[in-house]
Specification:
5-stranded mixed sheet; about 300 residues; Udp-n-acetylmuramoylalanyl-d-glutamate--2,6- Diaminopimelate Ligase, Chain: A, domain 1; about 40% helix; alpha/beta
Length: about 300
């Protein structure tokens, strides 16, 4: 009956009803007394009521744990890595909000992993510590403005350069050497190393920033439309965008590519989320723990 009731309502109606039972009116936040007693599902509802929706088919679901569990603390990160989980335990937090999959595939299918020791170790670590993991991927990008891009822009301090109609495009106002732009970006985002199809003496003014991994076709389509001097992305398939840029440079076009790393390009969005939670629901302790880049370079 509960499932039928939920399915017969729009998500927004359901959330509004749930919040009303908590004594939360639309446009407000919960009183401190109510906030201290929030369940995982109630906090998810508070987040989603701020975002246009619903999204018919989404990966933004609870991956493990009880949604009716009372929250002792929230940790936001790109991935629920074993290290992130252990740090959350130290903080006595039991709700992980993550942007990317928990179990090594987009839909978090686990049937093929059941006999695997790595999967079982991670699953046991989560269940032993009563952790709930919720993926916040599709909806954070649906937020207005896109929460990930907003986090990146805030970290860079580039709001003044951002195109009003195309938020992924930035105009620095005058050409700058790539080495200087790169130094500024690495410092602001806390990144030690990047990969490039570029020369450090390249000049750039129009910069396209595409965090994460939207895919080669999406990246190249935007390159075709806006013809930036530089595209900065999180991740590439090495037979797609990087090869397009290599050919463009060979024919004499002024095009450069910088690859930051997937986690590092979108991690500012999780910092943005924690700031949002601290403002909207201040009595729920929220902490950002970066997952960081898994790769080392030699």
């Amino acid at each position: 009956m509960a499932n039928f009731f939920y399915n017969s309502l729009s998500r927004r109606e359901f959330v509004a009803g749930s919040l009303f039972t908590l004594g939360i009116t639309p446009g407000s936040i919960a009183s401190p007394a109510v906030q201290n007693d929030l369940t995982v599902q109630q906090l998810i509802d508070l987040i989603l009521k701020e975002i246009p929706g619903p999204i018919p088919s989404t990966v933004d679901t609870i991956k493990i744990g009880d949604p009716n569990q009372k929250i002792t603390g929230v940790v936001a990160s790109m991935f629920p890595t074993v290290e992130v989980i252990r740090k959350a335990v130290e903080l006595k937090a039991n709700f992980l909000i993550v942007h990317e999959p928990s179990f090594y595939n987009h839909n978090d299918d686990t049937g093929w992993l059941e006999a695997d020791e790595v999967f079982q170790f991670k699953k046991s670590l989560l269940t032993r510590n009563n952790m709930v993991v919720w993926r916040f991927h599709d909806y954070i990008h649906r937020h207005s403005p896109d929460g990930v891009m907003e986090g990146v822009v805030q970290k860079l301090g580039w709001k003044k350069f951002q195109d009003r109609l195309r938020p992924t495009l930035f105009d620095l106002g005058s050409p700058r050497a790539l080495r200087d732009v790169l130094a500024e970006m690495k410092s602001a985002l806390g990144i030690k190393t990047v990969r490039m199809v570029a020369g450090t003496e390249d000049m750039c003014q129009r910069i396209l920033i595409l965090p994460g991994a939207p895919g080669g076709r999406a990246q190249i389509s935007q390159l075709m439309q806006v013809k930036p001097d530089l595209v900065v992305c999180g991740e590439v398939a090495e037979w797609e965008t990087s090869e397009y840029i290599r050919d463009a440079r060979a024919m004499g076009l002024k095009r450069s590519l910088v690859v930051l790393g997937h986690a590092q390009s979108e991690e500012p969005g999780l910092a943005w989320l924690v700031n949002w939670l601290n403002e909207k629901v201040p009595s729920v302790k929220a902490t950002h723990i970066p997952a960081n880049n898994p790769f080392t370079f030699s």
